[in-house]
Amino acid sequence: MEQINAVGRRKAAIARVYVNEGSGEITINKRPLADYFPNPILQYIVKQPLSTLDAAEKYDIKVNLIGGGYKGQAEALRLAIARALVKINPEDKSALRKEGFMTRDPRAVERKKPGQPKARKRFQFSKR
């Protein structure tokens, strides 16, 4: 199997993933998964597509992660891994789609409007 690559995005985070056959090692920005995401919930989010397909020990995954916060980065990485797994085996797509791992979350920060302190907040109205 040659190297498979995929991209996942969430909010401002971008994850570029390179998947090879291996022993299940995930390296993010040249650091192990446990070092990059010390929170076990974020580690769980990243590994969800692999555990859904029982492929956790089959592939070595190298990741370039930029932008966003840690939650957005974890979800971007989850999407990228799911897309790479579908490139490897297209029959897995329905299982991953059913779990919601193939859908790019379109929600992003709403822009600030002029004449307001924030996107939706207004300055206090004064009648006099």
* Poorly predicted tracts of residues: none
> Which architecture per CATH?
2-Layer Sandwich
The level of helicity is 25-40%
- Structural class call reads alpha+beta
Radius of gyration: 18 Å
What is the fold-level CATH name, i.e. the topology? Ribosomal Protein S5, domain 2
Report the top-level CATH class. Answer: Alpha Beta
The average pLDDT is 93
What is the percentage of strand-forming residues?
A: 15-25%
Q: Taking strands numbered 1, 2, ... along the chain, how are they ordered across the largest sheet? A: 1-2-5-3-4
Quickly count the helices.
4
Largest sheet, described in full? Answer: 5 strands, mixed
Taking the alpha carbons of the first and last residues, their distance comes to 73 Å
Q: What does the overall shape look like? A: elongated
- Give helix and strand order, one letter per element, not per position: EEEEHHEHH
Number of strands: 5
Counted up, domains total 1
Structure report:
The chain has 128 residues and is α+β, with helices and mostly antiparallel strands. The chain contains 4 helices and 5 strands. The protein has one domain: Ribosomal Protein S5, domain 2, CATH 3.30.230. Helices cover 34% and strands 23% of the residues. A hairpin with a 2-residue loop joins strand 3 and strand 4. The radius of gyration is 18 Å and the shape is elongated.
